[in-house]
Design a protein that fits this description.
CATH superfamily of the largest domain: Bacterial extracellular solute-binding protein, family 7
Number of strands: 11
Protein name: TRAP transporter substrate-binding protein
InterPro entries: DctP_fam (IPR018389), TRAP_DctP_sf (IPR038404)
Helix content: 40-55%
Organism: Caldimonas mangrovi
Strand content: 15-25%
Pfam family, one: DctP
Bound molecules: pyroglutamic acid
Structural class: alpha/beta
Number of helices: 12
Keywords: Signal
Radius of gyration: 21 Å
CATH architecture of the largest domain: 3-Layer(aba) Sandwich
């Protein structure tokens, strides 16, 4: 057991060598994690809070409450605004309706891999940070999921193959793809996915290799098309009012641990993707790249989504997309 300041103070307090109020001075907060304990994002959050506890010698203790048990994801940002919770993790695109740049995080067929995703984050970070700051929410870091691929019971060679299937959706982009291909969209949060699959409620879905493994996709689906539709990110945020109430040591610990969590998280996402694709194959799933025809349809679809997004975002925000392309093609 590590001797943290809190434990040391509590021991000294217990021996009557320190007044108990010194122990009580440690700040304790909760962090609303959106995904399950085994998910690499949640493990990264655990490392993040451990580092903060160590760096402040127990002066700042944060408890990770996983699986949206503290707050459903849609309520996390408003709860941070109201200081109802101190820290919260959300999928950026879950807030796509609030700001176009958050929706851009799940714009299909724009990024082709993790390097592109990192470029997109470079370009969009200031806008996301300022948008949140205006709401009294501090952005700490963002970490990607592996690229989103298509799972299905049967091989998919064209979008029409999805027609009529129960297609699990988790944000506006998945919803729109389901509609465009004539599938039947079914909204299921990641933490209920495994059960829904077991019960036969999902014929197809678009998510990462890792979420496919966590939800044991192979129990219903046999094919994974690694089509890299987008690379969505989770972001960790905190209440600005809680930040203001921290001492310098606490703030410094958060800043340092955030930088480290972001770097670790991007590395973990790549590693998790490699090992998850292997696990899918071990469970006899076919892991394929899209056929030439499907690729062509997807690219056209990407253009269409891009145009729709620019139309809604307006030219002011569309600049972020242009900046991204300029950076990528340099
Ligand atoms: N997993 C989460 C979000 C993106 C991902 O890869 C999900 O499927 O809900």
């Amino acid at each position: 057991m590590k001797l943290t300041r809190r434990r040391a103070l509590s021991t000294l307090g217990g021996w009557g060598l320190l007044p108990l109020h010194a122990w009580a001075l440690a700040q304790r907060h909760q962090l609303s994690g959106a995904y399950g304990e085994a998910v690499f994002h949640t493990q990264n959050l655990q490392t993040f809070v451990r580092q903060i506890a160590d760096r402040t010698s127990g002066g700042l203790e944060i408890e990770v409450v996983p699986n949206s048990k503290l707050k459903p994801m849609a309520e996390v940002i408003p709860a941070l605004e109201r200081k109802e919770i101190a820290f919260g993790e959300v999928l950026m695109s879950a807030y796509g309706a609030q700001h176009p740049v958050l929706g851009m995080d799940a714009l299909p067929f724009i990024v082709r891999g993790f390097e592109d995703a990192a470029r997109m984050w470079d370009v969009t970070r200031p806008t996301v940070r300022d948008y949140l700051a205006a709401r009294g929410v501090r952005l700490l870091y963002a970490v990607p999921w592996p690229p989103q691929g298509l799972y299905s019971r049967m091989p998919v060679n064209k979008l029409a193959d999805l027609k009529g299937l129960k297609f699990r959706v988790y944000n506006a982009a998945t919803q729109r793809l389901a509609e465009l291909s004539g599938a039947q969209p079914v909204t299921i949060a990641a933490n209920n996915l495994q059960k829904a699959i077991e019960e036969g409620g999902v014929d197809a879905m678009l998510t990462s290799s890792t979420t496919g493994v966590d939800s044991q996709a192979w129990k219903a689906m046999k094919v994974f098309v690694d089509m890299r539709a987008w690379i969505p990110k989770n972001m960790l945020c905190m209440s600005e009012a809680v930040w203001t109430g921290l001492d310098d040591a606490g703030r410094q610990a958060i800043v340092q641990a955030s930088t480290q969590a972001e770097a670790n998280g991007w590395r973990l996402a790549r590693e998790a993707d490699d090992s998850a694709k292997k696990t899918l194959t071990d469970h006899k799933m076919e892991v394929n790249l899209p056929s030439v025809d499907l690729r062509r349809t997807l690219d056209l679809l990407g253009e269409r989504f891009g145009r729709e997004w620019v139309g809604k975002a307006g030219m002011g925000h569309a600049g972020a997309l242009v900046d991204y392309y300029t950076k990528r093609n340099r």
